[in-house]
Amino acid sequence: MVRDRVAPADRPGQLARKARSRAVRGRFEQLGLRGTPYYVSRIDGRYYVPQIDEHSGIVSFVHRDGRIADVQVLCDFGPATEADVQRRATHPE
Question: How far apart are CA 20 and CA 15, in angstroms?
Fold first, then answer.
């Protein structure tokens, strides 16, 4: 198994900030993300993107010929609950 961390876990906020930019948002919309992408990992040629905040879950895809393909929703935990919002407030950025 080959595993590459595309966006380091020690800098997930950087990916989240980039995800809010207009240019990057279009790519994330292709993946059907409804939350903030936390980081990107590549395992055996497949990319995995966990999403947090507004909506939680994990999406995977392959990058083939310069295009995103074979998008799969692996987990969908749904929108944030009130408990999630309160828990996040206890851990400011």
Answer: 9
Nearest to 60 by CA among 36, 34, 40, 80: 40
pTM score, whole prediction: 0.66
- The secondary structure element, H or E, covering residue 3 is strand 3-5
Domain positions in the chain: 3-89
Identity of the amino acid at 37: P
Q: Return phi, psi of residue 19, to 5°.
A: -65, -25
Tokens 């990916």 belong to: 15
> In terms of pLDDT, which residue wins out, 58 or 5?
58
Q: Please enumerate, as own/partner, the contacts of 54-58 that have beta carbons within 8 Å and a separation of 24 or more.
A: 54/79, 54/80, 55/79, 55/80, 56/80, 56/84
What is the three-class DSSP state of 49? strand
